[in-house]
Amino acid sequence: MGRNNERNIKKHNDKLHKTQVKAKQAELARKERLKEIVKKFNENKNEE
Predict the structure, then answer these.
(1) How far apart, in whole angstroms, are the C-alpha atoms of residue 15 and residue 20?
(2) DSSP string, the chain
(3) What is the dihedral sign for C-alpha 32, 33, 36, 38?
(4) Geometric angle at alpha carbon 18, from 15 and 20, rounded to 5°
(5) How far, CA to CA in Å, does 6 sit from each of 2, 16, 17, 42?
């Protein structure tokens, strides 16, 4: 009866992958927002 049985390893890996996917999605969302902000900034700069 070890702690490193298949079920516990799978549960841990699923949790780990879920957090990694969440972090990746957050990073992509930040990049998209930054692109929008830069685009608006450049539009405003060109108007002046």
Answers:
(1) 9
(2) --S--HHHHHHHHHHHHHHHHHHHHHHHHHHHHHHHHHHHHHHHHHH-
(3) negative
(4) 110
(5) 10, 15, 16, 53
| Structure-token match 């699923």, residue found | 14
Q: What is the pLDDT of residues 14-40, one digit of tens each?
A: 999 999 999 999 999 999 999 999 999
Instruction: Show me where the domains of the chain are located.
Output: 1-48
Residue type, 5: N
